Structure formats: C-alpha cells, structure tokens
Amino acid sequence: MVNVESNTSNSNERCNTTITTTISEDSPWYSQFRNASNPWMARYVYGFIFLVANLLAWASRDELSSLSALLEMKGFRGCKVGKDCLGTEGVLRVSMGCFMFYMIMFWSTVGTSKLNDIRDKWHSGWWLIKIVLWLATTIFPLLLPSEFIQFYGQVSHFGAGVFLLIQLISIISFITWLNDRWVSEKYAERCQIHVVIFATIAYCVCLTGIILMYFWYAPQPTCLLNLFFITWTLLLLQIITSVSLHSKVNAGILSPGLMGLYVVYLCWSAMRSEPPGARCIVKSDSSTTTDWQSIISFVVAILAIVIATFSTGIDSKCFQSRKDDIPAEDDVPYGYGFFHLVFATGAMYFAMILIGWNSHHSMRKWTIDVGWTSTWVRIINEWLAVLIYLWMLLAPIIWKTRYADSS
What we know:
Helices cover 64% and strands 3% of the residues. By secondary structure, it is mainly alpha-helical. The chain has one domain. Strands 1-2 form a two-stranded antiparallel sheet. A hairpin with an 8-residue loop joins β1 (2-8) and β2 (17-23). α3 runs antiparallel to α5, α6 crosses α12 and α8 (224-245) packs parallel to α12. The relative contact order is 0.14. It is found in: Membrane.
C-alpha cells in the first residue's frame, strides 16, 4: 500500500481539497507512482521549469542590455533603438520559448480523461524528451527576427489578460467556496465565532490599508487620480458588503471581507506600479536607488507569479459547466490541457510585467510591473474582480427568477 498526499476535486468540495488517498497495488495510481510518472509529482516539475523560465527572462532583461555584442547576432539586428531594446526582446524571446513549450504540451494532452491513456504517460513521464523539447523551444526564438518578436509582444497583451481573468475566477471561486464551507449546516454552529473573528479582522485590515494608501499615495489634495482610485475602492468595498448581506443573497459577512482584502490589495499594487518620481508617492525620490527591500520585493514577486500560476493550473474543475459527476478511480486528477494552457498564458503574463506591458519601455533593475500601463491594468483588474464576484452572487437569483417567471 502507498499513501500519497494529493489535491483532488469532488462535487461537494472546493475545486482543490487536500486529502490522503490510499492506493492499492492493483490500482492504476500505484503503477503511475512506482514508475515515477505520477501526475501529482509531474506538476512540480512543470512548475520548476516555469520558475527557471522566469529567472531566465529576468536575467535577459537586466543583463542583456550590457552585452552590446548581441546586436551583431542575426536575431537581434532588428533592434533599432540600440541597447535599450535588448533586455525587452530578451524577455519576449524567453517568454515565447516558454509559451511554445506549454502550448505543445497543451495540444498533446488536452482532452485526457483516463490514467491509462498514452497522453497521461506523456504528461507525467518522458522527462528526458521533454527537457530536450524545452531547450529547443527556448533556443528557437533567439534565431527569429525582431519584427516577429515584437508581434509576439503585442499578442502577449491578450494572453496575459486571459491569464489574469482565469486567475480572478479561480481566486473568487476559492473565496466563495471557503465562505460556503464555513457557513454550511455542518460547520455553521461550530465555526460561527471563527467566521465573525476572521471577518472582523479582514475588514479592519481593509480599512487600515485604505487609510495607509491615503497617506502614502494621496498626501496632497492635488493627487486626484490616486484619490479616485482609493475612494472608489472604498465604495466598491461597501457595495460588495451590501450585496452580500442582502436578504435575497445572504452570502454572509466572511466572503465580502475576504474579497475586500483582495480588492484593496489590487488597488495598492496598482498605485505601487506608478513610475518612479511621481509626486503623489511618499518617498518617491529615493525610489531610483536599488536597496535590499527592492531586491526582496522583486524575488517575492517572481515566486508569487510561479505559485499563482501553479495553483490556478490545477483549478480546472472550477471552470467546468457541470461539477456533479462523481469521478471514477481511473480519472485524471486534474485537467492536463487546462494546466498547460494556464502556464502558456502565464508565460505571456510574466513577460508583460517584466517589461511593464510596453515592449518599447525600459525597466530599471530589480523592478517589476512598473509603469502607467501596469497601473491601469491592475485597476481594471480590480474593477473586473468586483464585477465577477457580484455576478457570482446575483446570477443564481436572476436565473431562478427567470425560471419562475417562465414556468
């Protein structure tokens, strides 16, 4: 007997719930585990490859600009603006290689449903061949002309947007699942005090964050844009709370509190992405120098990208139209195609935040997701998150009302 700690899904639980599965020697799971082709272990390898790609993209951005010899390479001769575009193109080329690798894995594994499928073995094993494939896809974009890379950079805006949308739905699904679980009949009485405590803490943190943002990013009455961002965030927090507590919705107080934390975080990250030297940012004059805090923030941001991509990739069943089917013993534990699609769009996303969503924009070392484009992407992401959350609350009521009227 072999015990494997894994994340699995069922119709009554969150899309990812940690359980301990007991695997018999006659089970297909045992042969997968024994042959070092376990799908749960495979996802960590793919996550590590994605991390390496992020680090390569960062090194390309911050180090290639000092290697003028690269301008003589065939692929970089189209770099019309000199050294400043080398870092940006380096990021896009690494991103394109990563995107190609995961798209090949997507097309070769999409639709896999059973553990004994040959595509399951391809997803979970054959690592030597896949490492060679990854190296080939990483090298190939280096040989392409700059015009093609710039076109990929434009397409990456759309791919990165898809990634953000998938991530939003995944996070909101987790928040609603957590709230439904804690207020369910099984846990309602036992967790009532815990719900009140966590909700109170969440709202206190939200209000504290809003006050600090007023102090840090809107110290003067002339900072109209930041004042609008913060005030509108406060208004959105009130709206999601009012809708959640409405008698027809009755979603409780925990989910709007957790959602408020996410909304406040997005507002903070948006204003933090404003370019250095902005007069409405406290201590912005010192932001042109690199210190240990900048380095730590950068490393944490890179790790956050990898973790967010990894956790979203195994959330495939959150996006299924039907979740009431009981999984069979030989069903795959997560959607392989969706997993690789998330990583492919994630490759475009890390390219965008490393170049500030602008292929003609030069970024300072140890910075990430800085620029007015990045600011507006974050703000729109915040507003979209609120709309999706409100729709998830109101959609069941709307459809129920329409069904009652039609009958």
